[in-house]
Amino acid sequence: MTIQTGLNGQLRVASDKSITHRAIILGALAVGVTRINHPLLSADTWQTIHAVEQLGVSVEVTEDQALIIKSPGALAIRSNHFQQPLQFDFGNSGTTTRLMIGVLAGLRIPATITGDASLTRRPMNRIVALLANYGAEIQTTDGHLPVTIRSGITSDAINETLAVPSAQVKTSLMLAGLSAGISVVIFDDFKTRNHTENMLSSFGVAVDCQAEMIFVAGDQQLVATTVTVPADMSAAAFWLVGATLQPHSDVVLADVNVNETRSGILKVLRRMGANITLMHKRLQNGESIADIRIRSADMLIGTTIAGMEVPTMIDELPILALALAVAQGDSRVLDASELRIKESNRIVTVTKTLQAFGAQINETPDGFVIAGVDQLQAPNQPLVDYDDHRIAMLQAVAKLLTSNVKLREEIGTIAVSYPDFYKDLAVLIDD
Ligand SMILES: O=C(O)C1=C[C@@H](OP(=O)(O)O)[C@@H](O)[C@H](O)C1
Ligand SMILES: C=C(OP(=O)(O)O)C(=O)O
Question: Which pathway does this chain act in (predicted)?
Answer without folding.
Answer: Metabolic intermediate biosynthesis; chorismate biosynthesis; chorismate from D-erythrose 4-phosphate and phosphoenolpyruvate: step 6/7
